[in-house]
Amino acid sequence: MAPRRSTRLATSRVVAPKPAPKPLPKKPKKKRSVASKAKTGTKKRRTGLSNAINPIAALGVVDPESKINGTIQTLDNEPCDVMLVLVNPQKHMDKFFILQLIESIQGSQIVYTRWGRTGTSGQALEQSFDEYDDAVKCFEDKFAEKSGLGWTNRSHPTVGTKYRFIQQNFAEKQGGYTSATWQYWVDDGVDGKTISWYDYDPAGSVKVEQLFHENSINSRLTNRLVESGIFTYDVDLSAMTQTNVKHSNKTSRRIRRCPEGVKLEDGIPQTISSLAIPASPVKSAAIVTPSSTPIKGASGHPSPVTSSSSSTSPPVDSDIDKFHFASPSSDFAVVKDEEHDEWCDVVLNQCNITGGSNNNKYYRLQLLEKSSTGNFYTWFKWGRVGDAPTHNAQDLKGPFSTIEAALKVFTKKYKDKTANKWGDEHYVAKAKKYARIQIDHKVGIKQELKSGNVKTEDIEYLPSKLHPKTKELVEVLFSSNTRDEALAAFDLDLKRLPLGVPSQQQIQAGLSILNDIEEKLNGEVVVTGSYPALSSAFYTAIPHSFKRNQRPPVINDQNSLQKRFDMCNILLDIYSQNETLRDIEKKRPVKQVSYPADSHYDSLQAKLDFVDHNLAEWKTIEKYFNTTKNSGRLINAWRVDRNGESQRFNKFDSLDNRRLLWHGTNIAVAAPILTSGLRIMSHSGGRVGSGIYLASMQQKSAQYTCGSSKFACMFLCEGALGKSHVIEHDDWTIKKPPTGYDSVLATGQIAPKTWKNIKVDKKNVSVPQSGAVDQSKNSQFHHDEFLVYDEAQVRIRYILTVKLH
C-alpha cells in the first residue's frame, strides 16, 4: 500500500500540521546512517574578521516561520537543516531556499521547504510521510533538484546556475540572530531626522545579522540584495554600506553592527576607502564604493577644507625628514577636508604581472599645514614597493599661502594617478591606474610598550610580578620586532614597506581575491581574469616588498594559494593583538599601572607555569624533543591552562588513544593561539584537508615553525584521537573523519618505535620514547600526521621556546 502523503502550500508561512492519524502498518526500513539527534559536527571558523565565530556542533533549528513542533533529523551525521542561496548581484538576484527534514512530536516525518527573495517570507510547503525512508528520499530528491548535487557530495562545488549549499552558524540561528543589532547613518535630513545613527527595525536587524554570519563562514557572500517593502537594498558587508537600488536617487548610507553589551560612539562614521581592485586590464564589472555623504555646515553650504592635528589625524610621512632638514615632519599636520569628511592622506598602489610585466609601485599623497608658519604644502612620494625612497622620487611643494591653492595641486595629482575626482561620491578603480588602499596607521604601539621602560613623563609602572622567564616570553610574543620578522617571511618587510601595514578591511579585500583564485583552481564557477591578473589584484590590495629584479610570483596552485591564505590569517591575528594593545593603552590610568608585560600576560587569558629544569617533567619533555628532532635545542617550557579549554575538552572524555603531540606555528600568532586555542580557519588546509595538524616527530612540526631572532615557539598538545582512520595518500578535501572514526592518521614512512603512557589528569597519554624507524609502508607521507576536525578535541598542554638550528 502506498504511504500516506499530504501536501499544503502557503504564501508566507505555514500553519502547524494537523495531528497525524493512526499510522498504517509500516514496511521494514532499510538500514541508513541516520538518527533523530545530530552528532557532533566539525567546527568551522572565518579568518579575516575581527568578530570571528566558532559555531557549536550543529543540531539544526526548525524554521520558526513553519510553526512545526518537532526536531531536525540527521542524515550521514549532518543535520537535515539546509540553506541554499542563489546570489548574483550583477543580475540583481538574491534568493534563498530552506530545506528541512523534521520529525514532528506526533511521530510523522515532514519535508519542509520555504523559498523566495532574500528579505521576504516567501512561500512554504510541507509534505508529511508515515514512512521514514520515503521522507528521506523526498528530502534527497529535493536537494538534488535545487543544487544539482547528491546529499553525499553536498560539499562539492556549486553546479552551474543551481542553488549553492552554504554553511550556517547554528549557535546564532538557535538564538534568533539577536547577538547584535544594526544601525544606519542619516545625515541628509530624510523624514525630518537629525544627523545620527538610527536602529534598524527588529526584523530588518535580524535579517542583516543572519547575512553577516553567512558571510562570515562562506566565501562570495559580501554583497547581498535584501527586499524590504517596496525597496531593494544592496548591503555591502565589506564597505559597510546599504544602497537603495530601486530608489531613483540610489541613496547610499553607512551601516554598522552593534554587538550586544558593547557601547559604540555616536560620532560621524569613518570614511571607508574603496577596496583595491586590479590595476591591470581585467575584464570585469566596475566596482564602486560609496564615500561618506558630505556634512553640511550651519549655513547649509559645504564647510571649507580645514587643517587639523587632532589625535585622529594620520601621521605625517617621516620620510620628509630624509630630504628636507629645514622642514621636519614634526612641524607638519595632515589637513582634513571637512566638506568630504576625509583626511588629505592617500596611499595608492599598483601591481601588474600580466604579459611579462613587473610593475609593483606605490604613490603617497599628503596635504600638510606647517604649524610654525601656517603655510600649506603638498607631499608626494613614489617608487617601487620595497625600495628605499630616493631624492628623485619625492616632492615637497610649497609654501602655499592659502589652503585652496595647495588643495588644487593635491586634487590634480590625485586625479592624474587614479582617474577619479577628489571628493566624488563614488570611487571607481580604473585599469592601468593606481588603486587606493587602506593602511592601519595605528598598528604601532607606544614606545614604552615596545621597550619595556618602567617610567615615562606621566606613568610609573609597577614592578613585574611574572617569573623572569615568563616575562621574557611575553615581551617577545608582543614585540613589534617579532611581528616584523614574521611578516618578512611573506615578503611583507615593514622596514622596507613605505606604505605601512594593510588595514583589516584591506586584508579582507585580499582574501576576497584569494577566494576568486581558489574558485578558479577548483573550477567551482567561471572566474573572470587570468591567474597573473588575479595575482596582480591581490598584490595591489596587499602591497608586498619584492626586490626590483624579483617578479611577484603568480598564485596559480594550491601551495602558493595556501601560503597567501596563511599570511592573511597571520595579519588578522596581528591586527587582533594590536587591538588588545590599544585597549590596554586606553584603560590605563595616569599614574601607577601594571608593568606592560603583566598587562599583556593578563590579556592572554591563559595561565603559564614555568617548568623548572630540575623536574622529571622537564626531563620527559626534553627527551621527547631530542629523540624526535633533526636539529635544534629546547630552551624552556611552560604548562598552559587556557581559560575554558579544560571544560571544552571534557566532552571527549570517553575517547581513548590520547597522545602528546607537536604543533608548529609562526611565532607571530603564538599569543593569539594562547588566547583562542588552536583553530580550524576557513582556509586552513593541507594534504589531509581542513583540520588541526599534529605530529609525533618534532622534526615534522619544525617545518611549519617560524621564529624570531631570539627563539621560535612550538606547542605540545594532548589529542583525544579515539579511533583513527588511516590513509596513505593525499586528500585535500577531508573536512571530518569518516563515519565511525574520531580522527585521521596520515601514516608515514617513518614513526617513533616505542611509546610510553604518562598520567595527565588521571588519564593515560602516550609519549614517544625513541626516534623514528622505517615502517616499511608505501605511503606518500614521510612522517605520521594526526588530524582532528573538531577544535575541542585538542588541549594545549605546553608552550616551548626552541632554537631550530
From TrEMBL:
Chain intervals with Low complexity compositional bias? 302-317
- Sorted alphabetically, which keywords does the UniProt record give? Glycosyltransferase, NAD, Nucleotidyltransferase, Nucleus, Transferase
Please classify the protein's predominant subcellular localization into one broad category. Answer: nucleus
What Gene Ontology terms describe what this protein does at the molecular function level? NAD+ poly-ADP-ribosyltransferase activity; NAD+-protein mono-ADP-ribosyltransferase activity; nucleotidyltransferase activity
The segment annotated Disordered runs over: 1-49, 293-320
Specify the PARP catalytic domain's residue ranges: 595-805
Name the domain of life this protein comes from.
Eukaryota
| A cellular component annotation (GO) from this entry | nucleolus
Q: What is its EC number?
A: 2.4.2.-
Q: What is this protein called?
A: Poly [ADP-ribose] polymerase
